[in-house]
Amino acid sequence: MREAAEDHQKAERALQQMELEVKSMGALGASINPRLRAYRTDLASSRRRIREAETALQRDGLALDAPREDKVTSDTFTRMRGSTRRLDDAKRSALEAEEIGLDVMNDLHSQRDGIMRTKAHLNEVEDTLSLSRRILTLLNYRTQSNQAMVWCIAVLLTIAVLAVMYLKMQKLAATLR
Q1: 176 pLDDT exceeds 60?
Q2: Could you give the C-alpha distances from 76 to 1, 45, 47, 113, in angstroms and in order?
Q3: Model pLDDT for residues 19-37, shown as the tens digit of each residue
Q4: CA geometry: angle 68, 69, 73, nearest 5 deg
Q5: Closest by CA position to 74, among listed 53, 102, 54, 91
Q6: What does the alpha-carbon distance between residue 94 and residue 88 come to, in Å, rounded to a whole number?
Q7: H helices within the chain, ranges in order?
Q8: Distances (CA, A) of 39 to 44, 46, 55
Q9: How far apart are CA 87 and CA 92, in angstroms?
Q10: Which is deepest, 15, 55, 67, 144, by most CB within 10 Å?
Q11: Per-residue confidence at 69, pLDDT binned at 50, 70, 90?
């Protein structure tokens, strides 16, 4: 009976471990849940059979140290309930941590998207600035060439005015002589 009770406890722990793993699997775990429920039902029925066998042994007088056995079984159940509560608390904490982790991942993903958009906009601005720089350089060259042409025309006009004045002065000097 002790071996059966110990084996039952081991099976209970293994089943709880499987349930934890199934919860962490997400969508894949949904397909495994019905099988786990069936195992849980089988485990509960085997526990009933163990209790019925213990009761039958006690009735038949085959359990020699029944009071001690009841105490051990009671202590075991008490420890098992405490362990189950601690496991439930640990599961709850793990699920909360998982939820917080998912929230952080979502935030990081949205921030990454924002950074990628900003980077794309920055590249567009850089391209636009490069084009503007080229256009300004070209305008600067044209302005300088226009200024040079204006200076050349001004010099030519000044020379022409001086030449005309010189010729007029020579004619005036020739008529005055």
Answers
A1: yes
A2: 14, 19, 14, 54
A3: 887 777 777 777 777 887 8
A4: 120
A5: 54
A6: 10
A7: 2-25, 27-60, 66-176
A8: 9, 10, 24
A9: 8
A10: 15
A11: low
